[in-house]
Amino acid sequence: MSKKLWGGRFKEDTNSLVENFTESISFDYRLAEYDIEGSIAHAKMLGECGIIKENESKKIVNGLNALLRDYKSGNLEFSTALEDIHMNIEYLLIKRIGEAGKKLHTARSRNDQIALDIRLYLRDEINKIIILLEKFQVVLLECAEKWQDYAMPGYTHLQRAQPVLLGHHILSYFYKIKRDNDRLRDNLKRVNILPLGSSALAGTTYPIDRTVLARLLNFPKISDNSMDTVSDRDFLIEFAGISAIIMMHLSRLSEELILWSSSEFNFIEISDAFTTGSSIMPQKKNPDVPELVRGKTGRVYGHLMSLLTIFKGLPMTYNRDLQEDKEPLFDIINTVKNCIEIYIKMLPVISINKENMLIACKRGFLNATDAADYLVRKGLSFREAHEIAGQLVQYSIENKYILDEIPIEKYKKFSNLFDKDIYSAISIKNCIKTRTSYGGTSFNNVKKTILREKKKMKG
User: What would the pLDDT profile of 107-147 be if each residue is shown by its tens digit?
Assistant: First the structure.
């Protein structure tokens, strides 16, 4: 019978199908560094509290450090027969240092051990994603500054609505990403809580000191309830939800880049380095990167729903179902990081077709609201002014005009309040310039916003 570290009460070998079905080492091996880090802290605490001898504690710590070095150099081999990363590390430790290694698991369960590993791992990964998002924010600010004076149509219902600055449009994504970063920082507060010391579910009879563990592992808080601790993955699901929102924001930006790069819009050209061709149509230049980001958003959504479904019916406390939380988590992290990284490189090298965007502004009656506002400033109520501006648009459509080209005598047939200054009032530049309300698209607003946010980013 293959010897299991938990096999004392079992008479029969584990069926090989069960070993393969229940193993998690094929994916949780990536927690090795965190498992060893947690074990080192645990061994030190056991020694400090006198639960094991000081020399045994040191021997365990030295053995674990050696295992960590071997892991980082790629010299550790794991076995599926040992199920998971915890049992593999413990087995390898005992094999190297002998009897002292068998004392490592004193006052600890795999239940609080895996809770610790995930928190250590996720804490590191969240900090990496925060750094990536900050880099992306810088890129968005740089692009907004570079394109701050470029007029483009703003849309509602995907219909041309009012002229805005491309810099203003890019800033809208800057603020979405900024909120994502804020959410991750807040999530860290609930990730950064020490679970170790809760043992299987009820705590332990050994005189452990969890404050020592918290200090060694840099946790500002210690969990309050052992049953909650080993069953809790709220922090993980919260992270998955925040990741889904990040991906949603990247997907919305992707959708716009895909549309803008099409012949129908022709507002931008994505660099050759971030596009691909067709296997059959030589003229094609496909926006595969934003399309894949858009597609991978559904993948992250699926993982979020998977996690919620796994947890919805679990009784207290630990259940093996929880093993299924890791692969979705690992894939979410890989996907989010990859998508942010490629956007950091892709966005700054997009070429802008400034003239086409300006033409689109002029041909879409985007200045109709400004024609109505002109009449309001002359004393007309907004509802009457709105009606007249709508009639002007209808007249222009029927007679193939744009509002800027309607002769002044025609304007006066709609209202005597119109005068020659209507043309400057409805110029695209003026339409943008006069949107001076806080948060609006005026040139000065966008410039001030960029400077303000750059200053905040620096610090």
Answer: 999 999 999 999 999 999 999 999 999 999 999 999 999 99
* CATH class of this structure's domain 111-354: mainly alpha
Does residue 2 have a pLDDT over 60?
Answer: no
Complete DSSP assignment for 131-195? HHHHHHHHHHHHHHHHTTT-EEEEEETTEEEEEEEHHHHHHHHHHHHHHHHHHHHHHHHHHSEE-
Determine the topology of domain 17-106 in CATH.
Fumarase C; Chain B, domain 1 (1.10.275)
Cα separation, 418 vs 416, whole angstroms: 5
CATH class, domain 359-458, is: mainly alpha
Q: State the catalytic residues.
A: 157, 278
CA dihedral 80, 85, 91, 94 (to 10 degrees): 160
Beta carbons of 219 and 143 less than 8 angstroms apart: no
Q: What is the tens place of the pLDDT at every residue in 6-52?
A: 566 777 877 888 888 889 999 999 999 999 999 999 999 999 999 99
Main-chain phi, psi angles of 320, to 5 degrees: -65, -20
Supply the pTM of this predicted model. Answer: 0.94
- Measured from the Cβ of residue 354, the count of other Cβ atoms closer than 10 Å reads 15
Produce one character per residue of 187-226: b if its CB has 16 or more CB atoms within 10 Å, e if not: bbeebbbbbbbbbbbebbeeebebebbbebbebeebbeeb
Q: Enumerate the CATH 1.20.200.10 domain ranges in the chain, comma separated.
A: 111-354
Beta carbons of 381 and 404 less than 8 angstroms apart = no
User: Largest Cα–Cα distance in the chain?
Assistant: 101
Domain with CATH 1.10.275.10 in the chain: 17-106
